[in-house]
Input
Amino acid sequence: MKKLKVIELFAGVGGFRLGLEDTGNYQVAWSNQWEPSTKTQHASLVYEARFGKENHSNKDISEVETAVIPDADVLVGGFPCQDYSVATTLQNSKGLIGKKGVLWWSIHRILLEKKNPPMYLFLENVDRLLKSPSNQRGRDFAIMLKTLDNLGYAVEWRVINAADYGMPQRRRRVFFLGYHKSTSLYQIFKNKTAKNWIFESGTIASAFPITSTSSKIDSFKITDDLVTVSETFNVGEKLSPFQNTGVLMNGKVHTTKTLPSFEGKGTVLRDILEKGLVPDEFYISENEYAKWEYLKGAKKETRTAKTGFSYNYSEGSMIFPDALDNASRTIITGEGGKSPSRFKHVVQTTNGLRRLTPLEIERLNMFPENHTALEGISNTKRAFFMGNALVVGVVNKIGKSLFDKISST
Output
């Protein structure tokens, strides 16, 4: 079977590409990376340095004409978490207008306008997507599922914590796959029970085995049009109807809570630390220890807002320094830089306390060594990239599973 061609959107520094192309079964035919808030396109520069400029677009995807994007078998992307509400319908059109700049609608437009839309979708987002927004729990994900249902896709999703399957970082993300109704895999999916696909024969279940604490699978239909879903879905309810695992087929959702099933050896923070000399800039001077300890510690104090309003503030303590015998905490975009922070990682070494190096942060996302090292790219920016990135190993395993399913149909 030939390699599957891939459209990679919101590419960042290429996490999806690395995970998929490492299987030997995928080839990125076209990619796009655009950072709206910066003049210098740092992530795109790294992407081009690693993969070349050919077939790579560094332009706002909402302004890229669909005709420019080549046909491909798979569309992938870790799109930004935004407000996905539907503003209005277009007259005399199947299209929709979501809020301006919301990039989900760029995915929708590409799928809608392409004469030969991708047969498979492989998308990623933060796990709170299943519960957003706070005043209408689950609405955003319902809009996405209904959108894909209208476009002829069946969907499966799972919230995966990479560390639950032996990877070095506790990073929880929702991954979802779409199967177009024209594919053989869609027909196989359609003829399985929801329970069978979720627990046994599904693409994600084959890559990341699960168990369950309950045999109960909740089912409900999303039958309303998109505007109605946007305005009324789950109004007045405190909890989202979407559990961490589920499927959508022909407008019907089946969802349940699952637990990871993994018996292998896990990678821990100690395993990814550099063995040689680490530059002095990453070490914390002893006169800064108190600041770090305060930020990492438990607090109960009265604070005053800029408006003059006083309020009680409290938060629990964090492990300080970070435990070396466990997978790391989640890397966030603010991981880089010298300033003391509650959320940055600090490790104890024989030479004292220090922050993580860019290479170590890359290892936590299972990127190649020094993938983001490039002239003109600061260590702080390299950490920022990894805060936005995904764990490559998760993409790799799902990619292998998807190719195996497709090639066996």
Summary: The CA atoms of residues 87 and 98 lie 5 Å apart. Confidence is low (pLDDT under 50) at residues 89-96. The longest strand covers residues 153-161. The radius of gyration is 22 Å.
